[in-house]
Design brief:
186 residues, alpha/beta, 5-stranded parallel β-sheet
Length: 186
């Protein structure tokens, strides 16, 4: 019983393929590396699903919060909404609802933003990128403006699809996330 009382707090990562470790060997994605870094201090639960949209994440979040009771939640969704050209107003509403729900459960929240390739048109690309800052400001949560910032301009950092970082790039993504996440890990 005492081990339950002294269990490490939970850090829940709620994302898409970029957080699920798509295309990299098991244990080499940035979330798995974070789990190793936080061993003993936090229990890291990766509830990321490849292909997930903000609507899908919103529909799953309540269950994950009740199941894992996280102290910290990283929401890293939106890329698939953008790549599919979905409504940005709906994406913002979904992200805002997830942040509110996570905060309402008592968790501290980090929202990880994303950028799109220019071929989606400048208006959509700009509004997409601004959406994350808008939600973070409105919902008063921490923001990492662009999850892939340290590797985005290096084609060698990506798998053949040009979207998913290779294993060698994952530590750079983790270091970037860590700067925004560390203040929430009290």
């Amino acid at each position: 019983m005492s081990s339950i009382l002294h269990a490490a707090p939970v850090l829940l990562v709620f994302g898409d393929s970029l957080s699920a470790g798509y295309g990299v060997p098991q244990g080499q994605g940035w979330v798995a590396l974070l789990e190793k870094q936080l061993a003993g201090r936090y229990q890291v639960v990766n509830a990321s699903i490849s292909g997930e949209t903000t609507a899908g994440g919103r529909s799953r979040l309540d269950d994950a919060l009740h199941r894992f009771k996280p102290a910290v939640v990283v929401i890293a969704l939106g890329a698939n909404d953008g790549l599919r050209g979905l409504s940005l107003a709906a994406m913002r509403a979904n992200l805002a609802a997830m942040v509110r729900t996570a905060k309402g459960s008592g968790a501290r929240v980090l929202l990880a933003g994303m950028k799109l390739p220019p071929n989606y048109g400048s208006d959509y690309v700009i509004e997409f990128e601004r959406s994350f800052a808008t939600v973070a400001r409105q919902e008063k949560c921490a923001l990492l403006p662009f999850l892939l910032e340290p590797v985005a301009t290096d084609p060698a950092a990506f798998q053949a699809d040009g979207l998913h970082p290779v294993a060698a790039a994952q530590p750079l993504v983790l270091d970037h996330v860590w700067k925004a996440l560390a203040p929430l890990l009290r």
